[in-house]
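Researcher: First entry.
Model:
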Amino acid sequence: MADIPLLPPVAAYVLDGEGGARSIRLVQLTSPAPGSNGFDFVWVQLQRENHEAMDWLENESGLDGFILDALTADDTRPRCTVHGDGTILNLRGVNLHEGAEPEDMISLRLWVDKHRVIGVWRRPLHAVADLMASLDRGVAPVSPGDLVAKLALRLVDRMEPLVADLHEQMDGMEELLDHPEATFERRILADLRRQTILLRRFIAPQRDALNTLAIEDLDWLTERDRSRIREAGDKTTRVTEELESVRERAAIVHDQLLDLRAEQMHRYTLLLSVVAAIFLPLTLLTGILGINVGGIPGADSPWGFWIVVSGLTLIGLMLLAVFRKLKLI
């Protein structure tokens, strides 16, 4: 886990299409027009809870109600929806904040067109902070499509260590199954299966969203952009397949754990049955000898008790030998 990245509630950059970028204020976005004065497109990141950001988004951005609703929705799933000459793109990243659950994935909502990338966030993402840091190093994206691809690649790069950790946990559980004396809590396995299912729930649609964007007929997407977006989609596909592998391994471990417990239960039940079968005739004999009537053999003999004990012991040993020969114990 990592510390929560510090993202400004309002961030706006102009990018020149050659790797350069500079920060500006929102009020400067109304003029000049993109494509003039040395910049090619703008990137805006807004926090949904910030009043200044939402006021600009609703009144100054020029986006219609359909786009605004998509960017400010309470709950989102990864998707790619073409609208006019742009696209609405919702992505998700794993929650790497200290003390958080990774499967509680953080959403990133984007509006992308030829001259603008407008993003809205509720919780900060490390991938966005990484990309903002790269602007200061002079390695800014060269196009809106390149910016989306870099964001998507950073999101999946953050997912891969988590998936590798899930595989390591599964390795440990599978090794424990090879040692019947070793045990682990079923809750741990259940948590791992739940985590894998929730991660896949969002990562699989993200793969589909990126692959859809790569094939959409948008004139501002260059072949290089499509190639980079396809690369991000391929890496997301591999992460999805790894999650499916973890889920299948967890199901197998769960089945093996049930089999081991059933085998243990069967062994204990068999042992109890053998013990009952040995003592049943002995109990019958002692019950007969213990009835309060005359004529009980050996009642008047001082050796009667030891004769009965010896006889019962001999019968018990004989029964034990029979069960061993039948391989029941």
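Researcher: Second entry.
Model:
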Amino acid sequence: MLYALSWFLVSSLLALWSLAAWAMHAAAVWAVSNAGALTGAASEAASGAAGLRLPDWLAPWVPPEFAQALTSLLSGLAPAVESLLQAAPALAGGLTVATWVLWGLGSALLIVLGAGLHLLIAMWRRRGGASGPRPAGQVAA
């Protein structure tokens, strides 16, 4: 009975792991596939980065050199972010391979967990931990 319970637990964890991997893959592929549509928003944000200014309550606490450096950094990063967003849809195929590899590793670990539980139960039963019928020649100590 313990064997069945342990393998039921392992198979339930495997089902949850598969469901989680599928859901995360679907969400990631959707995000990567739609990332190309965000390039227009990124270019608008890049053009708006030059007009960024600190809130009035924060301006006295931040040196103007730091604010200027931050603004120039944001405007310099905008072309790199835009090129990454344009290249993102090409990553969807690699994402599928990565998902399968991670799912396989996690599944293998769960099977090893099941085998370990199986061995622990077998060792526990051999040592006399199980209360079951004993052979006629064996006397309980």
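Model: Note on the second entry: The mean pLDDT is 81.
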